[in-house]
């Protein structure tokens, strides 16, 4: 029951953030001097009649409260409007881009968590060993590498050098895995590394500290004294409770992940959501930007909810508060 | 029993002698920091970079290359490729024949300016909001703590995209956005510290003699917060520098021809195959600077920690080594509870035992 209250509160908070974002985008894009949008669409030297026609067609002649209501109704129905530039439905653009962005995100996150946590656990169980020292240095270097710099260095140091020597498996751009699995992998491997490195560094450090801390607890001594195998002590008793601060950090980092994805798509020329949005910003294509802003915010909120749920499952104490 | 009392009596007699040697917290911190070679090296690197940034116009005059000046005859080869590093172009030239070295120096001005100014504003805002939220509690706290959480969970890139699309990219916009996503992490930590400090007896004493809340916060509490806040701020600067570079790289920040490390690297994107220097040197400038700030911040945090003091007690070294595991864990326990901003997840992590223990 308490878990239920906890989740209800989090869902409400998530909806609140989403509402704030939607209100913010509405005010940003709709509360502008009269005819700004109409002028952008109408082309050169528009007559007042044409401007009026566009305003009527887009509903921009209505009072602001009415416009806001219509905007909310459209959002609730999942209609994100049409691109100013290509007149394509924003829903279509997002549906087209989603598999590409998802390819980058899912692979990147898997790599990030697997590498980050396993390096962290190995470092913690072999604290101050050679492995630990090398890992500590690698982590520091990784932490200071912004995603876009690492991405470009990978392109220069790996992609270009391999291509110069006739290895063409690694490519930029995107190929659907339904077309060619190996082509998809070859194009995704560098983006995954670029996206995962910085975060993996953070997480290995965080999980290392947290696990070292946990392994010093009395109940771990107790578990060892009972004669449990070291593997069981570390994984069943140590890792589970050591993961809670890591999971709570995960919630905070989801937003940063979104930024990383945009950068990775730009660097590697993957025509996904981030790529199209940056393009839309540079060409002033407001409906596309708005669509991305809302989808991005929804993604962050939902991901945060999932993180909260994991947190509650991992740490029984959370359910009490 | 009697020996214990004798011992106590001796300890009390000895106490004043030791008390005379009292030092301020800042002096102790500096004494520990001085012995941290990595932190001092980082500090020197930061000072050198700052010096170079300030002296950028001097170098422009020395080389005779303005930051946005194009040299189509010397900077570009006959085939149109950027010129490599040479006596005239120390770090090579870009695709328009501009001097990369001079442009990197001018870029450092932007990076450091954005890093320091946004961090300063965000720190003041974060400390103020965190203190008020933690001190007053109740409704004020509810409201402020919720807004801190909302700001932390807010997808900042999304905010940036929307703002830039609406108002156009500019230095001011970059700084507003970076400040907005830095203050919340600092406010959160300060609020946490505040919650524990305000329960201390000396605060109660101050309150009981009728000191105003404003004075208590300013005189009794703020000095206690300066240490952790200094560490947070040092570690926030590289985050802000990277954020500026990333935004400029995406074309949402500083616009060419004004050089910034981000837009230099964006320019390099199409030329790295024939001009490695165009990619490598701006990337190195960014890496060295952020690494130096990160290492210095780590060093200051270690130096602030009284536990580091024991490192100088040589006799204890052997014993320390044996207990390092358990104690390292204790050190992380205090810090792991307070994850910081999204760029600073590592700050919540452990002290680096590998470096600060013998």
Question: What does it look like?
Answer:
The complex is a heterodimer of chains A (321) and B (358). With 321 residues, chain A is an all-alpha fold. Chain A has twelve helices and no strands. The longest helix of chain A is centred in the C-terminal third of the chain and has 39 residues, at 230-268. In chain A, 40% of the residues are buried. The mean pLDDT of chain A is 82. By secondary structure, chain B is mostly helical. The longest helix of chain B has 37 residues, at 100-136. Chain B has a domain at 43-63 and 91-311: MetI-like fold (Orthogonal Bundle). Chain B has helices at 2-20, 25-34, 37-54, 56-63, 100-136, 138-153, 156-167, 171-197, 201-208, 213-249, 261-268, 276-304, 317-336, 353-356. Chain B is built from 14 helices and no strands.
N→C terminal distance of chain B = 38 Å
The overall pLDDT average of chain A reads: 82
The overall average pLDDT of chain B, rounded, is 78
Poorly predicted runs of chain B are 309-320, 322-358
Alpha carbon gap, first and last residue of chain A = 12 Å
